[in-house]
Amino acid sequence: MWLRSRGGEPKADAAAKAATATSAASKSTPARDTPAQRQLRKRVAQIDARLPQLQADLAAIELRLAAPDLYAKGPDEATRLGQQQLALRKESETLEAEWLQLYDALQTTY
Fold it and tell me: In this predicted structure, what is the pLDDT of residue 3?
């Protein structure tokens, strides 16, 4: 009691209040998603899985493009890698934009 009157609380009380606040916040969102929300979440998960793959593929291509011996072989391989890099960047940008739209749609449904 004395601690409360002085503005301090035992750590256990503070943790209990934080847990209560967290559970109250979770109760304000619906317990079950609608089919449309599930579909949005599924697509977000698919994008979340694909983006790291794209980043890894882009990094590998950039390493190959940085190798001087690539250009000694002729322009064909470098051109092909440049085209792949461009396609992967476009896919990444498209997926990131889609992810933002889906996230906004999910946020507005709650």
Answer: 45
Q: What is the mean pLDDT of each run of 10 residues along the chain (110 residues)?
A: 47 47 44 87 97 98 95 92 98 98 89
Q: What is the spatial distance between Cα 41 and Cα 24, in angstroms, rounded to a whole number?
A: 23
Check: CB of residue 56 under 8 Å from CB of residue 64: no
Asked if residues 44 and 98 have their Cβ atoms less than 8 Å apart, the reply is no
| Structure-block tokens of residue 91 | 């896919």
- Residue 21: HSE in the Cβ half-sphere, 13 Å Cα cutoff: 6
Q: How is residue 21 written in tokens?
A: 């606040």
Residues contacting 29, CB < 8 A, separation 6+ = 110
Question: In the chain, which ranges are continuous DSSP H helix?
Answer: 2-5, 11-28, 35-66, 68-72, 75-108
Q: What is the reported pLDDT for 83? A: 98
One-letter amino acid at 71 equals Y
